[in-house]
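Forwarding these from the shared drive since the link keeps breaking.
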Amino acid sequence: MRHRSVIMAALAALSLLAAACGGGGDGGAGADGGQAAGGTSEAGGATEGGGATEGGGDYQITLIPGVIGDEFYVTMECGAREAASELGVTLDVQGADEFAPPAQIPILQAVVAQQPDAILIAPTDVQALQGPIEQAAAQGIEIVLVDTTLEDPSVAVSRIASDNLEGGRQAADALAELVGEQGPVLVVNVNPGISTTDARQKGFEEGIAEYPDIEYLGTEFSNNEPARAAEIVNATLAAEPDLAGVFGTNLFSAQGAAIGARRAGAEIDVVGFDAGPAQVEQLEEGLVQALIAQRPAEIGRQGIEQAVAALNGEEVTEEISTDFFTVTQDNLESPEAQEALYRSEC
């Protein structure tokens, strides 16, 4: 746990007061004097400890999601806010409006300049964020990796994420069942170099290889743009009119794949990863046939708990994996499925 002097505590309090006076949805000032996109903040409520840790005292913790506005990260924020309230810590959320290192790195640098006690961050690239996060840790800030990771994650006291390799295998099984274990299938991924979606792709490839009558056409990258994912599916259908199924490795990939299939008038099965409101609507409409839902609220909650444990000098769990739930039209109304769906706001 880092110990601050009385002077630093007073300065931190003045800084928080100034941020509150100039607050709003535009977020805090960036390192170059600009505004960090999409920042929000909220003080924790209860002062008594809860969960696996003691109370958090006056700790300041910042969550930096991969991108602001994505329902996965919104749901993660909700879980983090609930834990922060229970543990009595102040949680600030600062994020970029684009899932890309050039957008995230200035946000991280601006947060480090504010000297929080801990940072929860979903790195947008395993290599590009390595140095900036190491620089943050060198300032005495406890680092917890949430959702995504780094090439060398030892800089963090804990990392919490879905077992994305297993999630990819689960997606392969779901798609294989939908297509009757035969026919060509395609993966639409985001960009190479993102730890989570790379693992989902690998898990899918390992899983689909167990079905000898399924032809794996490979992976195309959408740059996290639904329109590009739709174009990929349209182009694949032109070359492979018998395309049987598509696995979209994240919300926008699956959303775009479904749109592309609809525009082409093709009846193909689409398995998505994540369960945001737009995807659930597509599931209800029959555009997407299955969703592999993660547990982002649990990732956020455990991220806060691990950060507070580290700050309190308590035992920290180095790596935590969360599970999945496959949502279909048949089980959508079940309590288990409803609990797995993502939120658009807390």
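-- next protein --
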Amino acid sequence: MSDELKRYGESKRFKEAAKEEQYTIIVGPQHPHTHEPLSYRFALEGEYIACTDAVIGYNHRGIEKGMENRNYLQNLYIVERVCGICSASHQITYVQVCDRLAEIEDEVPDRAQYLRVLVAELERMHSHMLWYSILGHDAGFDTFFMITWRDREIVMDLLELISGNRVNYAWMQPGGVSRDLPSDYIPKLKKGLDQLRKQVEYHYEVVETSRTFRARLENVAKVSKEDALKLGCNGPTLRGCGVEFDIRKDAPYVSYKELPVKVCVWPNGDVLDTTRVRLDEVLNSIEICQYILDNLPSGDVKIKFPKRPPPNEAAARSEAPRGTVIHYGISDGTDKPYRWRIRAPTFNNIPTALYRLIGNNIADIPVGIRAMDPCYSCTDRIMFVDLNTDRKKIVTGEVLTHLANRGRLTKRNLFNL
């Protein structure tokens, strides 16, 4: 482990790691760059970053608890709002858990499994194109931002053609998908994918040949393969550091084992290589979608899902655009899950984003943070930490309300109530 990583890992508190003579700047929780609330702290030596820290917890929406108070069908519309740009990824993971709870996973029709992947891969293109569009803006290349933002409309039109929605597609459901794909849609989808491929190849050419844009990304915010593994990052962030790991290939789900999935890897660990990974994945997603349209199985698109699954527990993983999404559910024989747990990929990628910025210029903060494709709304969890003793406490909603009322009246710390 590098000396810088040891320093980061050993500093329990930012104020202890930062020297008195260093100047500290705070980015967030409300800041034009972050878009969502998360607070970064950077200790500077001149114009270079010496120490980093982040504080989450500004945007807890209670989705897990909300899911435990609604039935399995109602939860379909909650779970795809965990993240607006990974909605299909959370839904495909959710329905896998539901299928396993009801023990019908092996009975889901092949056509439904292919159609699940079709929307998930179209969303991957949508998400990656949005990411490198905003990266262009963060790097000061607004022409690239405008061009790629325009071309992203192609894939959003395809998603609207299939589902009727540009985001939050309401496409998947336990036992299959909500409706079939009409045969007359297939030529339109193929035409759109061909058009999209040409545009993405042009985007790739711009990234590789624009000297000023490339200079803002190459050798910026680097992290080694070894440190990326030790820090636990995942998704394109991990593959941009030379680690060949993709859930779609290493632990295939739904119909991915039958599809031409490529694990896109670049070795340098800088922002340029994470950009290349996402460009490669967009091109591969186009190839996967074209294969699906050419080889779509016939048959039904759903089977009946029991209103009350038997008592059971199950988990599932999927490869979202940002990394690995994990859902875990417990059924108790009622029409509502007894417990649901979600882990989104950004939670694992934040330590890497902080570490990779150490030693970089203050001007590299926007692209360094952007390299992990952050989504904070799906990251936050409630946990109280006493900074003086490192004691941790997790409480339920009812207990939290009770303690908050007592704390307001007595003006005492939650750990002392």
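Residues 82 and 278 are 22 Å apart (CA to CA). Residues 4-12 have pLDDT under 50 and may be disordered.

- D.
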